[in-house]
Amino acid sequence: MGERKLSSVCEVDKISFPEEEEKILQLWKQLDVFQTSLKQSKDKPKFTFYDGPPFATGMPHYGHILTGTIKDIVTRWAHQTGHHVERRFGWDTHGLPVEYEIDKTHNIKGPEDVAAMGIKHYNSLCRNIVTRYAAEWEEIVTRLGRWIDFRNDYKTLYPWYMESIWWVFGQLYAKGLVYRGVKVMPFSTGCSTPLSNFEAGQNYKDTQDPSVVIQFPVEDGSAVVGAEGAMLVAWTTTPWTLPSNLALCVHPELEYVTVKGNSKEREGVYVMMEARLQQLFKKPEDYQILKRYKGRHLEGLSYTPLFDYFKQYKARGAFKVLCGTYVNAESGTGVVHQAPYFGEDDFQVVLSYGIITKDQSPICPVDDAGRFTSEVTHFQGRHVKEADNDIIKHLRDEGRVVCADRINHSYPYCWRSDTPLIYRAVPSWFIRVQHMQDKLLETNSQTYWVPNFVKEKRFANWLRDARDWAISRNRYWGTPIPLWVSQDLQEVVCITSIAELEQLSGEKVTDIHRDSIDHITIPSNRPGQPPLQRISEVFDCWFESGAMPYAQVHYPFENKSQFEDCFPADFIAEGIDQTRGWFYTLLVISTALFGRPPFKNLIVNGLVLASDGQKMSKRKKNYPDPVSVVNKYGADSLRLYLVNSPAVRGENLRFKEDEVKALLKEVFIPWLNAYRYFVQQVERLEKDENIVFGYDSAKIIQSTNVMDCWIISFTQSLLKFMKKEMKAYRLYTVTPRLVKFVDNLTNWYIRFNRKRLKGDSGLQECQRSLETLFNVLLTMVRMMSPFTPFITETMYQNLSKVLDSKSELLADSVHYLMMPETEHHLISERTEAAVASLQSVVELGRYLRDRINCPTKYPLPEVIVIQKEQQVLKDVMELESYIKEELNVRVVTTSTDKNKYGVCLKAEINFKLLGARLKGDMKKVQQAVAELTDEQITSTLSSGSIEVVGHSIAADEIVVKYQFSGERANELSSKYQAHSDATVLILLDTTPSQEMLSEGLAREIINRVQKLKKKARLVPTDEVTVWYSMNDPSGELQQVVDDHLSYIETTIRAPLRPVKQKLSGEVTIVEDNTAKIKDASLMLVITNGYTGGFGNALQNGNIAGDTKALANGINSVSPSISWVNVVYCGEARRGCRSLTSGTLLLENPSGVSVVKDFDQLKEEARTLFGFDKRKGVEIFLDGKAVTQLKDLKTIARKTVHLVPEGHSASAAQNGITTPLVKFVNVESKTGACGSVLLENPVGSGASSMAQVLSLARRVCSNDSNAVCYADKARSQPLDSNSSTAELDATTIYL
Hints:
By secondary structure, the protein is of the alpha+beta class. Among the domains are: about 205-410, Isoleucyl-tRNA Synthetase, domain 2 (Alpha-Beta Complex), CATH 3.90.740.10; about 655-830, Isoleucyl-tRNA Synthetase, Domain 1 (Orthogonal Bundle), CATH 1.10.730.10; about 835-960 and about 970-990, no CATH class; about 1015-1090, no CATH class; about 1125-1294, no CATH class. Helices cover about 35% and strands about 20% of the residues. The chain contains 39 helices and 46 strands. The protein has a 6-stranded mixed β-sheet, with helices on one face. Strands 40-39-43-41-42 form a 5-stranded mixed β-sheet, covered by helices on one side. Strands 4-3-14-16 form a 4-stranded antiparallel β-sheet. Helix 22 (about 635-645) packs across helix 23 (about 655-690) and helix 36 (about 995-1015) packs across helix 37 (about 1035-1050). The longest helix is centred in the middle third of the chain and has 33 residues, at about 655-690. The protein starts with 16 loop residues before the first helix and ends with a strand.
């Protein structure tokens, strides 16, 4: 066996998860664990993973952390299932995100500013900031436990990466997929460059724009339209395009009218679509229709231009009515103004009429910065969006404006500069994509996505409408497009490598950014012609990232066979926004190059939003800093929270820090407690038995204990489940099973086996149970290591010390171990089902004890288990001993016939859950549910729902009550409490005998001792003596001690002796003189060591000092529930030597206890004020010391004083009967009422409105989105951003 000894584990509340994780980071760094694991796996089958490159111009956010965690879990799992997984970090270093930062910093407004600075200097500035936050990225990513290679990274600015981009482009060019064209495209005036359609779709915003109707007088067309002086009317939200108007367009087959206005504001004669008359007229009386006709009737009709900037085009057919089927009756006037170089549909229609040609210079009087050029003399130099109002004013002065207003609509903004896009015709280089739509859908069908609906719907729909991809950008910092062309574009050379450029140009090339190659020319093949020059454009940065599978390995110049053997990738993962970004560009390039998908498996995650559902915003500060969350709860908690969220199912996640904290408490603390308990019991075993505990799987004797078999089976079932789910890339299903597993381990296995684990059932049973627990912990550590790498490493480093020195499971790190193989022969579905039945019985019994306030310490006569299936009852009886012990009952009886006991079921609807949903059908559903039979109710509990009066009612939306019928109904109802779940019905006999009550008192004493030992932070192996005294030495409690002494001492593992026998030299560890059991006062003292003699009694101390009662700022209105003021007459942790005061709620909402007993009252006060737990404290009520209270109602709405040792009780005389702190009452529509404290203790600072409203909902509603109102009429909703100053002593209505 290993010679190393297990290290002790301190109490969990003393453990800082973040600090323990920092230690693990140091261990990994010291051992170089990541690189070592890669060396160990280098000869194993490869699992290929592509890491999408982020920009390093900003800090990582929760979206990056979520995606990075998904990638880390999958790649760790792949490694630990026998694969070699190369993980290289990548950086997107080119493009708009970088250039925009430089433009902002250096006040660059357009291309002329860059020209003045020089491209070399501009690119140098860009190069200097591309890794601005690289160090922070590496630090944060590493802190989160993600293993990825930053040293062997790839950056899109590396010349070898850029060379592969040239090769990819060269292949597409050779296939005839590259062409140059003029196309109307989304254009960013903020970045002076066109954008692709998928970029334009990334940042839509609701915005307000002009809505204007312009009139175009008809020239010599009275016969056509049926009236003199008629005017065509067109609607637009882009007045800046009106100076470029060349035509009007109507739908040839839809109905148009000539209409005369009858009102003062609409007196003219207008030509428009009949279906759109409401655009100009409010009601039919406001107009008179003069003539009806089809739209084609207007074709060729001339009108007077708005401006004469392009009057020369009249000779080519401009300023006439054209026909186009894209015109619709959904908006506007049915007459669309045509500015062909600012709208794609406009361009196609005007082109088809020959007014413009494909090869002519565009009629585009707007420069790259979005400013009007000299052609538009009235508005030259003005930005188009800023000129809108002046254009409207100019046209109004000319009498051409029919009406003008503002419109709210969704409009695309530049994803980088956040400025509104315009649509503008620009010369661009394109990749042909439209012809590949079917092939793209076919390659997409060969991939596997989680979740699948994103692939089949969102992504497939995008592919069906795929358009040719504009890959050129009129920018500077990017991979130059490698096309060298003649001035007439008749000669084009596409360069595919650096070597080829050197060969054709005769120049040495080391870098291929614009500043390094723009000057290079290539001799023309045509005699006498000037040399070829490179075109000025660079690649869209999405083209660079879409080519990363090839460029990251410098394919095909290097690693050719290595790449081809591992393509396509086994796995990629990014956010849902990449369906129109990286996922799309990857697929387009891969399909165009190889006719294959670039990846096999993909996890697409949803967005991470702020807790209020809004986008996370640095400006709004509506989310907690990720680093601070990690520093509070640890990276493991954040990782598990994220991968258990809706975001891993492609839905959006509202990030809530409280939920990270809850996961820590729900999973990690119980898990750590189970591990700590194992270590404690091994230490006890080795000390008591003088043996060394070791684990050698080859020598382990398989336990036959049913609970050992069950937890082993459950562990193997979980392992089997995890392997199945991970194979399907369903990470989100793992955490719920983990929560259940931790519950089974701590609350069932360890709880049921404490005696065995402690050695009370003999050495052999102790060893078997410890071996089982070790096996389970080690298996769990191994299978959870990809998900929670820190805590699993912490546990493994200690657990591995008991492994045999030759064990295959012994390694420097848990992450060197492979995932355990599922041992199918250890899985017993029968055993798991049996224990599940046991759990049902126990949980129902616990519920019934709580309902009648009967602690488990007190024995009860009998529990009756009723179920129709004999197998379930057989399982229950085989596990009878566990039920007896856990429920503390004398007899377990089973039956298949509930009628034998006169039990019948009655169902009622849950008004709180169903009220809002059922509305007018409430009474009908209520009556129908009340009439359900026993069989129907049982069926509902089993199936989970029932159909009632057209409504589907879930099982948890009805309340099932149990009644006794027949002649013995009164007798049975006084004796038994009944409850059931979907598995069994139980009856609990709640009439204990005197003997049972005495045993319960003995357990009460044990409980007080154990609590005191825990308070003193003692462990089971500590040798101590417990001394006691009571106010009535001849009373019932002393008789209980005498009758059950052996049982008590065995359980507390220490001698229990009267305090009068205690020697004066005994060293006191802790004492408690406030315990009260059944009206008897019990004082307990724990001393160091086992007693060997007895001595003098304890000396009593005096209380000294001075305190004052607080009586200022008291409210005249009280909370709507029970409360008590607490005043601490000492120095709190906050350092305040004056009185510390606050208020504790005894219930919240009304009827739901928060503080249940006297002890909890004191603990709540300690938590509130933060005073030293080691110091004794006495409670005073109305100036009198109180040592125990049977019913806390006696102190409700009063003030108690907590007086510590060494302080005077003289200040505890004034009783205050109104609350000390500010509060607000809460009332729901269902009648539930409660309260929220606005500060506690006094002077600690008020809670924010958002916190108050969140608490209000939690207290009186299950709906986290319930609206909170300031008035009972519920007409004044409360704003979460407002102040709480006016809330004091008022009521919030839900």
